[in-house]
Structure formats: structure tokens, C-alpha cells
Amino acid sequence: MTEQTFRIAPATVFAGDAAGEGKCGRCAYRTLCLPSGLSDRDLSLVEGAIGCRRRLARGDALFRAGQPFANLFAIRFGHVMTCRSDHRGERYITGFQMAGDLLGMDAIANGEHASTAIALEDSEVCEMPYARLQRLMAELPQLMEHFHRTMSQEILRDQSAIRFLGILRADERMAGLMLNLSARYAMRGFSPRRFRLRMSRDDMGRYLGLKMETVSRLLAQFRDLGLIRLDRRELEILDMRRLEALAAGTRADAAP
Length: 256
Description:
Layout: E1 11-12, H1 30-33, H2 40-49, E2 52-56, E3 61-63, E4 71-77, E5 79-85, E6 91-98, E7 102-103, E8 116-119, E9 123-129, H3 130-139, H4 141-166, H5 170-187, E10 194-196, H6 201-208, H7 212-224, E11 228-231, E12 234-237, H8 240-247
Helix pairs in contact: 3-4, 5-8, 6-7
Keywords: DNA-binding, Transcription, Transcription regulation
InterPro entries: cNMP-bd_dom (IPR000595), cNMP-bd_dom_sf (IPR018490), Env_Response_Regulators (IPR050397), HTH_CRP (IPR012318), RmlC-like_jellyroll (IPR014710), WH-like_DNA-bd_sf (IPR036388), WH_DNA-bd_sf (IPR036390)
Pfam families: cNMP_binding (PF00027), HTH_Crp_2 (PF13545)
């Protein structure tokens, strides 16, 4: 499948902003986007650096590869995937992002986006002009430290993805993806065992480096082994311990 064309979502300033609705101090994912311990004054400065909120419909592109870099984006709600194209025009997926995650940091070095970000469902992001953030980080050292920590975590995720493709077996990759989603939902106060897969089987395959048929076979295998229950996209992890063992390289078909 070659690279698709996605509609760029328009910038929208919502009326609720004036009343303080959706501001950083009231956001449920503030601790993921911002450092702890910010004073009311500091929060006010951060809120002033947010340019607008951008609403995306499912399938909208937040930005495209090659687009000039100007803003970072924090996801308020919804899910987004980032993808690139290889030399043949084939699309592969580099990550699945959710509320509290930052997007666009890969564009800082070269001044243009290296990937395309596409909404997996109706979503909303806070748009933060990078020039404003730079000035603010000079005034708030704890914000700069948090930003550097976030960049470091993104580098580690990229290294983990390379390991996914280069070393792990197909079933280990699938188990690793499920555990990654589980841990991230738990960080956001949701169940680590029951959640909805926002991505399609094709998307999962393009992230894990597997064919869609292999993804479907692995999901059926995990179900038959009693590791998961899957109803369309509603996933329940039934045996976390064995799934963790599988991701670590131990076979999961042994008796529980």
C-alpha cells in the first residue's frame, strides 16, 4: 500500500478557552505533558504559550512529512499514529500516540517533519509554537528538564522499535506491543487489562514489520493459548504473567 493523502486538520480556537476550560491546570494528563510542582504563575505562563487547540477527525493529518516545523503538539484526547514512507512509497508506522503524548519533536533538528501524524479517531491537540516554548524554557528550568526527559524517552522508544524489527520473533513483537499499550493506559488511570485497539490489523502489521495475515494469526494464537480475549477491537489480557514471559522470549504455550 503506497502513501495516502490525508486532509490537514484546520486550527480552531474554541470558545471554552476564554473561560479556562481545557487549560493546563485542569487537564487530566497535565503530569504527562508538564513537570510537577509548577506554581499558578508558571502554569499561567505555559497556558499563554499554547497557540490554539486543533480538532482532528478520524483520518485527518496533523502534519505531513516534509512540512516545515513550527509547532509541537500535546494530545488532549484521542489517538494518533505517526508514519513514514520508504523508497518504494510503502507506508510503515513508527508509533501510536495517546492523550498526554507530545508530537513533532522529530522535526526540531532539521526544521521539517520527518513523519506524518494521522488521527486514528476523533482527537484534539494543543498546539504549542516552538519559538514561544524556547523562550519559556529559558525562564522555567524545570520545564526544560521535563522536555529533555521526554526527548530521551522518545529516543529509547525508537531504539526499542528497532529491536522489535531486528531481533524479536513475531509473537514476541505482538506481546511487546500489547504490554506497551497496557502500561501506557495504566499510567493514564485506565485498566491495564481491558482496552480498545484503536489501530487496525494492517496498522499493527506496519508497526511490527509483519503482514496483516500474520497479525491475524498471532491474535488467534494468543486467544487459543488463553492469553487474551478479543471481541473485534476490544482486548482483554487474561494472563499478564505469561504474556510478559512471552515478550521476554519464553514460550507462552506452556501450562499456566
